[in-house]
Amino acid sequence: MPETHATVIAGAAEAVVSSLIVTRMRKATKFIGPNLVIKLTRQRVPSKRNRGETFVLTIGKPNFDERKFLKDCKKAGEPVPVKKVQLRDFPKRRKPAAR
């Protein structure tokens, strides 16, 4: 039975959600094709006091950084639907300036 577009998106969304819930990362991205990306972004840094988490699920075209990543993958010979979920961490805090 061939996979439909909806089942591919549902499977990728499930992979993105499970990878972000297990880790404490900020963003999980799954590349379905050259023009379709599924992203899940955590709204706040997780802490032990949190009772719930807020996420934003985005399905659509890749942004500038993601297009650059796809271009670099093509140069390296990686197939276009990248198999692994790409994870990004929260930005590191800068140390306060010495006075």
Secondary structure tally, helices? 2
Largest sheet: 4 strands, antiparallel
DSSP strand content: 15-25%
Task: Compute the separation of the termini in Å.
Answer: 67 Å
Classification by helices and strands:
alpha+beta
What does this structure look like?
The chain is about 30% helix and about 25% strand. The chain has helices at about 5-20, 65-75; strands spanning about 25-35, 35-40, 55-60, 85-90. It is α+β, with helices and mostly antiparallel strands and about 100 residues long. The protein has one domain (about 5-45, about 55-90).
Summarize the structure.
By secondary structure, the chain is α+β, with helices and mostly antiparallel strands.
Which terms would index this structure?
single chain, 99 residues, alpha+beta, 4-stranded antiparallel β-sheet, 4 strands, flat
Layout of SSEs?
Elements: H1 5-22, E1 27-33, E2 36-42, E3 55-60, H2 64-76, E4 86-88
Antiparallel strand pairs: 1-2, 1-4, 2-3
